[in-house]
Amino acid sequence: MRGLVAANPRTLMHVLLFLLVVFAVSLGPGLWVRSIMRKYAVPEDRYAFSGGELARRLLDEAGLETVAVEAAPAGADHYDPTSRTVRLDPKHLDGRSLAAVTIAAHEVGHAIQHQQRFAPLAWRTRLVVLVRPLEQLGAGVLIASPFLAALTRAPSLTGLTLLIGLSTLLLGVLVHAATLPTEFDASFARAMPMLTQKRLLIRGDERHARRLLTAAALTYVSSALMSLLNVGRWFAILRRGL
């Protein structure tokens, strides 16, 4: 391979271009999502109510008084259907920015989906419960593969463990991809109508809220692409070591 690259600079250019495209496709959506979140996190006092206060109001008006609103780790906004809890990043829970109120409405959208037994949300919840232990098992298998190869020197067994490990990691990618209908429904069939019909947004903020809701929906696309990049990284490491 080294001789081929050294003898043919065009091959090296193609390899570098391919790697650039892979990184751009994998990292681009995540960078865009983070830039949108940062952009609309200021001014921090744009609204008279915080994201947590808005979430509580929207939940109560939807008849979801028993759904709790709590702080989440930074960057981990989500609705937990098992405990019936909306969890918001502290800067969204206590913040009064456009990002704070929009993301809060998005997570309330998931709680309303749960109340209305929205089928894609139910399927996603089941898949997450099923796949999470399998992902952990797959990561363990991949870590053990080089040691297994050294001990057994059996290519067929090593190849099988590699296939099992990568397959379980790919399941996580598929779960992230399967969340798209749920995320876009929470953003544009739930959150945006609540924000506009209840006149909660400052005039002129609607189009910016739509960008934020698109970013919220695409968070899982970013996660799926990063997971896919991680699978490729593991494959390259193991192929080099076997």
Structural class: mainly alpha
Largest sheet, strands/sense/barrel:
3 strands, mixed
Number-wise, the strands total 3
Write out the strand line-up for the largest beta sheet, numbering strands in chain order: 1-3-2
Rounded to the nearest angstrom, the radius of gyration is: 22 Å
How is this structure best described in words?
By secondary structure, the protein is mostly helical. Helices cover 75% and strands 5% of the residues. The protein contains 9 helices and 3 strands. It has a 3-stranded mixed sheet with strand order 1-3-2. A hairpin with a 4-residue loop joins strand 2 and strand 3. Helix 6 runs antiparallel to helix 7, helix 7 packs antiparallel against helix 9 and helix 8 runs antiparallel to helix 9. The longest helix has 36 residues. It is elongated and about 65 Å long. The N terminus is likely disordered.
Give a short synopsis of this structure.
This protein is mainly α and 242 residues long.
Descriptors:
242 residues; mainly alpha; three-stranded mixed beta sheet; 9 helices; elongated; disordered N terminus
List the helices and strands and how they pair.
Layout: H1 2-7, H2 9-39, H3 51-61, E1 68-71, E2 78-80, E3 85-88, H4 90-93, H5 98-115, H6 119-152, H7 155-178, H8 180-197, H9 206-241
Parallel strand pairs: 1-3
Antiparallel strand pairs: 2-3
Helix pairs in contact: 2-9, 3-5, 5-8, 5-9, 6-7, 7-9, 8-9
